[in-house]
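Weekly modeling sync, notes
Attendees: AB, CL, MP (scribe)

Item 1: holo prediction request
CL wants a bound-state model with iron/sulfur cluster before deciding which constructs to order. AB pointed out that an apo prediction alone won't tell us much about the pocket. Agreed to run with the ligand included and paste results into these notes for async review.

Input as submitted:
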Amino acid sequence: MNKLTNEQILKALATAGLIGNLVKFNASISGAEAGCQAEIGTACAMASGAATQLLGGSIHQIEYAAEMGIEHHLGLTCDPLYGLVQIPCIERNAFAASRSLNHAAYALVSDGRHIISFDKVVKTLKQTGYDLPSLYKETSLGGLAIFGKED
Ligand code: SF4
């Protein structure tokens, strides 16, 4: 891949910001509101879209990669040990970052056409977030967080 220009990087960051704001406006980007799917799912969607753009993707391929970023995190609970954004947060974010490159690669071998649109997956994230019990919304009362209480 050729060296990227500052303009290309700024445009990709703008795309990522747009994706994040769409989720924020139409659903949530808060683990306390909608679980980790809303935080890491959205972050992954932002990175997936930006990476696809930087790799030369069309607008349809960018939308597809962003859609996968959320789709592949739907239902993910927010359950940080000790109430700290460390375990499982750090690893989850690192792997979501690496997954975003896979989403870009996958979208780029397609023509960008797919069944579930970005808007539909955001709508699903919102409903799934409502349906998740509060145990899994940053309260550290359920999921992995219970193991932080054993010591
Ligand atoms: S599990 Fe960690 S990264 Fe995920 S939403 Fe909760 S605090 Fe944020």
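Recorded for review: Residues 31, 36, 39-40, 78-80, 85, 89, 92, 138 surround iron/sulfur cluster (CB under 6 Å).
Action items: CL to compare against the apo run; MP to circulate these notes.
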